[in-house]
Amino acid sequence: MRILVVEDDKDVASYLKKELTESHFSVDHAENGKQGLLLASTEPYDVLVVDRMLPGLDGLSLVQTLRAAGNKTPILFLSALAEVDDRVSGLRAGGDDYLTKPFAFSELLARIEALLRRPSGSAPETRLQVGDLEMDCLARTVVRGGHKIDLQPREFRLLEYLMRHAHQIVTRTMLLENVWDYHFDPQTNVIDVHISRLRRKIDKDFPKPLLHTARGTGYMLSERQEAS
Fold first, then answer.
1. What is the pLDDT of residues 106-134, one digit of tens each?
2. If residue 221 lies in a helix (H) or strand (E), which one and from where to where?
């Protein structure tokens, strides 16, 4: 597997190249945006790891140019810009994932592995289904057993995340980071409150529960009784 790291910080680039090489990847390095664009446009890579703030050509422009040219290589943004708007702009520019600095290499590796598991060139599904529960992400509608379910924006986002990870245990940390954009534990019961509300809406009036609690771990959305 070939990875291109586009990073102007020499220490970070050296660290990434060493760790990724030890994880059995073939790693190329570009120290600025223009060099990164040239390599990404002319060489076959399985994943690109791109810094947001690059000399010559910034990371957003690099990714936008690649996507406009039809390049579908999975891209992970790596950046010290950690605000919600920064992450959103990175994803909207064409990035597939966004990891903020400082980071743990184990998490970066896990995210790369997740990108590699995606079918080549696949776009996120806009229609999701778990059992008789259906979501249209574009129309922002949820239906179960033919009955429309009204959700608040945060509830919709929570359910979408659970549906995209159906039949998998989703931890509280994953929910805090991906649904609430928290990268710390706020020490509140915000997750419990929203899970309770969501469970009432999607399970209460139906014979078979879909939202399960994995005690001490997190939650799972599944028509199969796998968590308790």
1. 989 999 998 888 765 555 678 899 999 99
2. strand 218-221
Which region holds residue 4: left if phi is over 0, alpha if psi is between -120 and 50, else beta? beta
- Residue numbers of the domain that contains 201: 127-221
DSSP secondary structure string, 67-130?
HHTT----EEEEES--SHHHHHHHHHTT-SEEEESS--HHHHHHHHHHHHHSPTTPPPPSEEEE
Strand 133-136 with 47-51, pairing: unpaired
pLDDT tens digits along 74-89: 999 998 887 888 888 8
- 112 and 138 housed in the same domain: no
In a domain, residue 122? The reply is: no
State whether 86 and 145 are in the same domain: no
Q: 133 and 215, same structural domain?
A: yes
Give the predicted TM-score (pTM) of the model: 0.55
